[in-house]
Design a protein that fits this description.
405 residues; alpha/beta; Rossmann fold; Heat Shock Protein 90; 2 domains; 5-stranded parallel beta sheet; rod-shaped
């Protein structure tokens, strides 16, 4: 028999012979006996040990009888569950029985004690105690299992959440990479196609009419080709650096720049295209204005907007003008043309999503439809805003802001 299967029995009687007699009758390797010769001594034992399967309590004892002792025992919450069997020699009248039950007793045994009855009644309560202990252990094990399942569930939920966040981050990065790809395509489309067109035009003139052109004309075309080629190479190098910075997510590098000079450099790359349509540029920006901009982004913004102005201005149309003015710590830059203008519906769709269809220009110039989306993104990265005013048949004016330096 293991210690876990041993049950405690408290025997209380003022006669030590009776204590010994009951212990002998109940002798069992699974029983552990505690003995007291008075109610006071029994209470002292119960202060130290609370796990008893049953208490055998003599009724007739000096100073404190069995009923009083039982009442005091039941006053403690931790002892209320212990069944009490009263041992009595005389008090077995109805009134005494009622008093015993009222005091907290669950049964009576008459003296002289019948060993079989004593063993049978004690066995009932010790077995009940064992089963209660087993139930408590099973309840504790069930609670521990439930706690483990709860922790496992919480851990699973945490892992699912972490995985979900991880997948969302990956998805966001993929979208960002896709957007960077579209931006890069758009930059190449707008920023390189235009100067390459002028380069091609000059080379075609030399190819077709080179034998009949005077030396000074040949010199002009060769200078255009040389100058444009150098600028294209420089811009291509910058685009490679920009693509690398996109991948490294360090693509925004603002610096203090003279606005009029930056605009002039961008217009130089577009001037041949404008000349082919007999369109002039007017750079009306005050040379004293400085801005805090990412030069590559700003060039892309300006070339996109000016290219569109050329594209939708008819052959021999009025000049495309570029102006700037300080506004609340920012500089507002405007690009105005006197071309075909646009409908209100078209205006509302300019900066919405990926509108990858592009309207041909007045000389059937082609585009990708991504340019203005790129422009808006670059302006936003500068902390600025962009808006457009346009009237069908009268022209268009784009206005955007960048930080003043």
């Amino acid at each position: 028999m293991t210690d876990d299967e041993t049950v405690n029995i408290l025997i209380v009687d003022d006669n030590e012979n009776n204590l010994l007699s009951m212990e002998v009758i109940l002798e069992n390797e699974s029983y552990s006996f505690y003995k007291a010769t008075s109610g006071k001594e029994a209470l002292r034992i119960l202060l130290k040990e609370e796990d008893f399967s049953v208490i055998l309590l003599d009724v007739k004892m000096p100073i404190m009888d069995g009923y009083e002792t039982a009442q005091l025992i039941l006053q403690r919450d931790k002892l209320k569950h212990i069944p009490i069997i009263f041992i009595t020699a005389q008090d077995y009248e109805d009134e005494s029985v009622y008093k015993g039950y009222e005091a907290g007793g669950v049964d009576f045994i008459l003296k002289p004690i019948n060993p079989e009855i004593l063993r049978a009644k004690v066995l009932v309560f010790t077995e009940l105690h064992r089963k209660n202990q087993l139930l408590r252990k099973q309840e504790e094990q069930l609670k521990a299992t439930n706690d483990d399942l709860l922790h496992l569930s919480e851990d699973l939920e945490r892992r699912v959440l972490e995985r979900t966040i991880e997948l969302e981050n990956v998805n966001y990065e993929l979208k960002t990479l896709n957007l960077s790809k579209d931006k890069f395509i758009s930059v190449i489309s707008h920023d390189l196609r235009t100067p390459l067109t002028s380069l091609l035009a000059s080379s075609e003139n030399l190819s077709r009419h080179g034998g009949n052109l005077p030396p000074e004309k040949i010199k002009i075309f060769s200078d255009i080709i040389n100058k444009t080629s150098k600028k294209i190479l420089n811009q291509l190098n910058e685009l490679v650096d920009w693509a690398k910075s996109q991948r490294e997510k360090t693509n925004f590098n603002p610096e203090k720049i003279n606005l009029s000079k930056a605009v002039s450099e961008s217009l130089d790359l577009l001037r041949t295209n404008a000349v082919q349509k007999r369109i002039k540029f007017e750079n009306n920006i005050d040379p004293g204005i400085y801005v805090e901009i990412d030069t590559l982004m700003f060039r892309s913004i300006l070339q996109n907007l000016v290219s569109n102005a050329i594209k939708f201005t008819p052959y021999g149309g009025k000049a495309v003008s570029i102006n700037a003015q300080p506004v609340d710590g920012m500089v507002e830059i405007s690009i105005r043309d006197h071309g075909v203008g646009m409908h209100q519906d078209t205006k509302e769709l300019l900066f919405v999503g990926y509108n990858k269809t592009s309207v041909d220009g007045t000389s059937q110039e082609k585009g990708t439809g991504l340019g203005l989306l790129l422009v808006k993104d670059f302006v936003t990265q500068h902390g600025g805003t962009i808006k457009v005013d346009s009237e069908l048949g009268k022209g268009t004016c784009f206005r955007f802001t960048v930080p003043s330096a």
